[in-house]
């Protein structure tokens, strides 16, 4: 962890976010990574909502740019979960970005962050539509792109490009 | 005189010419665009390429008053039944122009969500290649359609009455 | 052939034929004129491939519309659906009987006057008959059994009714001066006074013109067939010649209201500058030429407005009618009554 | 009389939904109670396609996202790839990219003014906007050969250099734009009907706009000073001085004014870029087969519609593992529900137009 602090030396705001996070959540295994000037933190699924509220209220990440779904079927190491969801946070007006990563298993249910960031409503519906990851307490979790009675989740790695006939 | 290749007499022949002349010169396109080709269709209707010279500038918003359906863009599987219903709502002497590679054959999107070619659901009269076709390409396609309309025989139902059944 | 048969039967019949064909001809001219002028405003060329400079374009449209399939909505009310366009077009054509197209011309012993009927309440009849077109629009909107035409129909009811009042009051202020509602007397009065009513009553001219544009559902008041909101408004479900009827009726109404404005405010068939000595050669030109020139100006004005203005929102439209035009026209009528009395 | 709510369907085909968007309106005699946008009618699966194509082959797909601003999409994608692969674009290449991107912003805003005015009834402004846009499309046709989906940028820089003919065409186009803007402003800006139709319509407060993730001119009209060209300068935008137009009461009229002002600022940027165009190479050396080691990057730019971001996850091969496109119109359309409550149907059309959404981008 200490060498992570040196990497953040010329990014003061990100450095104190790093300090605050490691101070308030010492127990949980938060895995930080800083590459190409982008700070990313891997967060266990159970504490996601707590950490995101903390980031929003205390650290000032007041806007959510994007919610990204990943299917790491082919590149995951042994024992790792299949899916991952990334929350791209943005701090305005201090102009800083942070990426929070959560690993989701095959048919686990992620919890929706719509109460925190209303912008995530459609993005989560898109992830459900494309990957089949269900979100708890989502206002109306329905498919957004495909027909409602479409079977299969297109962006999964095992889904053929031309679609199932 | 076998009904199969019944020739239109002088009266029906000139009547055909009159009707097709009128239909050719007042093709009102249906104001519906799907994707990028729609922008080139509007650019063709704008002042630089000016489709109104051929009397086509009245883009009717309701299918009831349009008689030319330019499929300008990608027809996805979700949109296909809608496009089919719009085509059925148009009154009868109607023509379809498939504008752009997506409408002609699915174009650069061979994916699960795209209908590979609009002629799977609609009878297409003119195919225009290009992604998107330039306004000159669209104008050339429309002039081809005008030539095709000029050769039609709308009064065939009268002078070749029995031919209709054998067709 | 006895002269009474000629004078009493054939000439009025010819006149009726002329008045029936005249709006149709004007519609043909208007279709071409509108598409060319709007295209010119929008730096386009407009139809110029069909016949010389696109002159045959209206005929091509009409013939094509004639041969279109005639679609009837399944849930539509058949009779009313078919009657609506006829009412709209018929109301415009019937009103033309009282419109004086020109003065009287001396041919041999018989002075031919350029109007079909002359009635002491000609003005009221014209406005009354042209207001019947509202029924056509509502029938069309309601009978199409679909949501957008219904909304279009409702909008046109409120719009045309709320603009009848300013029209009536503006006409009232004219009648104060002309002391008669006979269209021919109004023109004769202007000839007698040597000045057109437009210069005496500019306010009522403006009021009448705004409500005329509103009554024919023309931009910026074209909410009943607002293209971008209600797909095609009340005539969404009409195809083929029935839509052609609505199309022609709109233009016929425009020609009708332009001719009413010309007769009321600009002296129907009177040559301009009547008392200027060296312009007296203008009197040689027959009356209906002047009438035609003045109408073309107003028809051009319709198209000019269409090329420039955006569309009103519904509550703005009603606010304009009730908060601006009605009080203004009431004030105008009172003012003119005062002037007449003093 | 029992209150009966009409369910009006501004269906996938409607003159003013700018493409295949379906709006389910719950309407009480023209007053809108609820709006529920339904998207997906133009979903072509571009993200799935990106996983089956190499980094070079993906650039033409990004043209077809926001087909009004093809160069901007290329720029966003290419900056993300170059950041991932660590490719340094030479200064001249960056300047030419800025010129092309700003020209594309002009074309997009001019088309938007035309569509928004046409939705509100002023059809002539659509023709004026498109006539002006033709001048810019001719420049692209001269530079790269295509008009709309132009694929005008490459990994590492730009395919061709700007020769004197293109620069003279650009300067000629820039001279004619202010005159045309004056025409449009004369027709619209102080027109009473236009003001009635746009002022106080579709108002959304600044904090709610931020919470809903609104970006671009719609957010700047709420007075929030967020322009990525200024906040996180990319592709040497820090060398040019331009100001970020802001609105005050965040309604359709302010969005219209902000976009008008942005056109003038873009003209300023292009003039400065042409004046200070440095010499040298316009494209970096890029290997024919580009294999990018495992890693992920998220990079976003200021597209005409808002913040357009690309998230790319590389897996060492020449094809990306995952490409996620953060699309401004997708998030902006979400706030339509919040903006349209209580207005009339005619206002829904005006508000939808002011958000400047493009369906190719929303449905990906």
Concise account of the structure shown:
With 165 residues, chain A is an alpha/beta fold. Helices cover 25% and strands 27% of the residues of chain A. In chain A, the strands form two sheets. Chain A has a five-stranded mixed beta sheet with strand order 1-2-5-4-3. In chain A, strands 6-7 form a two-stranded parallel ribbon.
Largest sheet of chain C: 2 strands, antiparallel
Report strand % of chain C. under 5%
The CA-CA distance between the termini of chain A, in Å, is 50 Å
Quickly name the level 1 CATH class of the domain at 2-107 in chain A: Alpha Beta
- Tell me the number of helical segments of chain C per DSSP (H or I, 4 or more residues long): 12
Please report the total strand number of chain A as a whole number. Answer: 7
* Class by alpha and beta content of chain A: alpha/beta
The average pLDDT of chain A is 87
**SSE-based structural type of chain C:** mainly alpha
CATH architecture of the domain at 2-107 in chain A: 2-Layer Sandwich
Return residue spans of chain A where pLDDT drops below 50 for at least 5 consecutive residues.
Answer: none
Low-confidence segments of chain C, ≥5 residues, pLDDT <50? none
Mean pLDDT of chain C: 87
What is the spatial order of strands in the main beta sheet of chain C? 1-2
Task: Name the assembly state.
Answer: heterotetramer
Task: Describe, in plain words, how this protein is organized in 3D.
The complex is a heterotetramer of chains A (165), B (167), C (342) and D (364). By secondary structure, chain A is α/β, with parallel strands linked by helices. Helices cover 25% and strands 27% of the residues of chain A. The longest helix of chain A has 13 residues, at 12-24. The termini of chain A are far apart. In chain A, 36% of the residues are buried. The mean pLDDT of chain A is 87. Chain B has one domain (28-159): 3-Layer(aba) Sandwich (Rossmann fold), CATH 3.40.50. Chain B has helices at 10-25, 36-45, 80-89, 101-105, 135-150, 156-159, 161-166; strands at 68-72, 95-99, 126-128. In chain B, strands 1-2-3 form a three-stranded parallel β-sheet. In chain B, α4 (101-105) links the parallel β2 and β3. In chain B, α1 (10-25) runs antiparallel to α5 and α2 packs across α5. The mean pLDDT of chain B is 87. Chain C has twelve helices and two strands; from the N terminus they run αααββααααααααα. In chain C, α3 runs antiparallel to α5, α6 runs parallel beside α12 (314-341) and α9 packs antiparallel against α10 (240-265). In chain C, a hairpin with a 2-residue loop joins β1 (104-107) and β2 (110-113). In chain D, 60% of the residues are buried. The model of chain D has no long low-confidence stretch (mean pLDDT 91). In chain D, a hairpin with a 2-residue loop joins β4 (295-303) and β5 (306-314). Chain D is mainly alpha-helical. Chain D has one domain: Orthogonal Bundle (Cytochrome-c3 Hydrogenase, chain B). Chain D has helices spanning 46-50, 55-63, 70-85, 91-120, 123-144, 164-188, 192-198, 206-211, 217-220, 228-231, 252-275, 328-334, 336-340, 345-355, 359-363; strands at 6-10, 22-28, 31-38, 295-303, 306-314, 322-326. The chains are: A alpha/beta (165), B mainly alpha (167), C mainly alpha (342), D mainly alpha (364).
